[in-house]
């Protein structure tokens, strides 16, 4: 197995940040990983797993070993007339996996089309878009302990999924390499077009009875119209989470800003659209040392002109401060800061 030294991580993160790590190793199977963990350089180093690098911000060189997970393979491991259980290797590209499920007539993941990155990272923050989160279709995953290689299985409940959250961002942070993920998908047609923009897009496309492929295409169109393509402009999608606030704070803000974008939750709290809050602070397009707030979507920070990770982090501090000063709302970062 090849362990590279002093590797530049620019091609491995969608912010296009140029930083180095001491060691870098690509693994393509669980067996590869088991042979890696007896290596002295591995044992004595800090460890970081990456897939597509589309939800990380490197703020400095990584003092340790980066393990690039490239475990592949997609298989139906169980099925009946209603459901199929599909297992995908953590290194499979997420969007290509979604397209594979659509091709096989398996329903559930179509709203999650075009999310960058790999299957293995999808449970990390319970990826979501357009009314669906993976927890709705996730069955279980295999994870290898980073210290001894022991394999465990985590069920849906054990992953403790929440909005952009899982046990792997909290109690079990930096403890496992996720190797395989299993989803339980429907064989009977079941489309979720409750998210208004999908229906609008389908209408524009002239489609009245959509298929899963149509929904996927509509989602792709919406995403392409708002979100910057990391190949053209470095970014990691939404930089912040949409904040949850109390009914009291919501009412207070609404009084002063009747156009507030807010969604009621079951617990009397509200989720606010962070993009709207940031836009109201006149920060759309705001630039700081080459890092900028995206002009089309204020929730996305971009590496516009050779910024460093620290520049992006400083910009995020500035955005957090501005939003807090204006609305009394604390924004939390979604992206993993390294
Ligand atoms: P990475 O960035 O490589 O890793 C993310 C985290 O997971 C890191 O902490 C890493 O250490 C850990 N990790 C990765 N793989 C493994 C593994 N196999 N085992 C253990 N730990 C691992 N996210 C959404 O939820 N919804 C969206 O709509 C969305 N849109 C986006 C749009 C754009 C343009 C971009 C750039 C990003 C978007 N994202 C979105 C964020 C991102 O695509 C997802 O979080 C994705 O799941 C990250 O996958 P990745 O393989 O790139 O993870
Ligand atoms: N808005 C503004 N100004 C902006 C951006 C948004 O006013 O600059 C308003 C929009 O007009 C809309 C509302 O905010 O009324 C919500 O905007 P949008 O539909 O674009 O979604 P979002 O809340 O900004 C979330 C996710 C995305 C996901 C989309 C679609 C989070 C943090 N982000 O964005 O996920 O793709 O919904 O479901 O929840 C990601 O996590 O990286 C990501 C891109």
What's the quick description here?
The chain is α+β, with helices and mostly antiparallel strands. It has eight helices and 20 strands. The mean pLDDT is 97.
Main attributes of the structure:
single chain; 338 residues; alpha+beta; Uridine Diphospho-n-acetylenolpyruvylglucosamine Reductase, domain 2; Uridine Diphospho-n-acetylenolpyruvylglucosamine Reductase, domain 3; Uridine Diphospho-n-acetylenolpyruvylglucosamine Reductase, domain 1; 5-stranded antiparallel beta sheet; 8 helices; 24% helix; globular; binds flavin-adenine dinucleotide; binds uridine-diphosphate-2(N-acetylglucosaminyl) butyric acid
Topology of helices and strands:
Elements: E1 3-8, E2 20-27, H1 30-36, H2 40-43, E3 46-50, E4 56-57, E5 62-69, E6 74-79, E7 83-89, H3 94-103, E8 128-129, E9 132-133, E10 138-145, E11 151-155, E12 176-186, H4 196-204, H5 212-226, E13 234-238, E14 244-245, H6 247-256, E15 262-264, E16 270-272, H7 274-280, E17 287-288, E18 291-293, E19 300-303, H8 309-327, E20 336-337
Parallel strand pairs: 2-5, 3-5, 4-20
Antiparallel strand pairs: 1-2, 6-7, 7-12, 8-9, 10-11, 10-12, 13-19, 14-16, 15-16, 17-18, 18-19
The structure holds flavin-adenine dinucleotide (FAD) and uridine-diphosphate-2(N-acetylglucosaminyl) butyric acid.
The site of uridine-diphosphate-2(N-acetylglucosaminyl) butyric acid has 16 residues, from strand 13 and helix 7.
């Amino acid at each position: 197995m090849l362990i590279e030294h002093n590797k530049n991580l620019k091609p491995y993160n969608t912010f296009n940040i140029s930083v180095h790590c001491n060691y870098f190793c690509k693994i393509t199977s669980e067996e590869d990983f088991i042979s890696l963990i007896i290596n002295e350089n591995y044992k004595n180093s800090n460890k970081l797993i990456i897939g597509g690098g589309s939800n990380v911000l490197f703020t400095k060189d990584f003092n340790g070993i980066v393990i690039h997970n490239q475990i592949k393979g997609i298989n139906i491991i169980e099925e009946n007339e209603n459901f199929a259980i599909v297992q995908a290797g953590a290194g499979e590209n997420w969007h290509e996996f979604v397209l594979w499920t659509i091709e096989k007539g398996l329903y559930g993941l179509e709203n999650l089309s075009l999310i960058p990155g790999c299957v293995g990272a999808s449970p990390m923050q319970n990826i979501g878009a357009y009314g669906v989160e993976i927890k709705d279709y996730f069955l279980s995953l295999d994870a290898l302990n980073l210290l001894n290689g022991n394999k465990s299985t985590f069920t849906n409940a054990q992953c403790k999924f929440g909005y952009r959250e899982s046990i792997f961002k909290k109690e079990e942070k930096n403890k496992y390499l996720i190797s395989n993920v299993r989803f339980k998908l429907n064989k009977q047609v079941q489309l979720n077009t409750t998210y208004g923009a999908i229906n609008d897009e389908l209408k524009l496309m002239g489609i009245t009875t959509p298929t899963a492929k149509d929904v996927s295409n509509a989602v792709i169109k919406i995403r392409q119209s708002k979100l910057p393509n990391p190949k053209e402009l470095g970014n990691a999608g939404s930089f912040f989470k949409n904040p949850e606030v109390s009914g009291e704070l919501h009412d207070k803000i609404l009084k002063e800003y009747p156009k507030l974008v807010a969604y009621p939750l079951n617990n009397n709290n509200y989720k606010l659209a962070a993009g709207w809050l940031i836009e109201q602070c006149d920060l759309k397009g705001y630039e700081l040392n080459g890092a900028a707030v995206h002009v089309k979507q204020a929730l996305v920070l971009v590496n516009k002109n050779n910024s460093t990770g620290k520049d992006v982090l400083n910009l995020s501090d500035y955005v957090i401060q501005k939003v807090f000063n204006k609305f009394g709302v604390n924004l939390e970062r979604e992206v993993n800061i390294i």
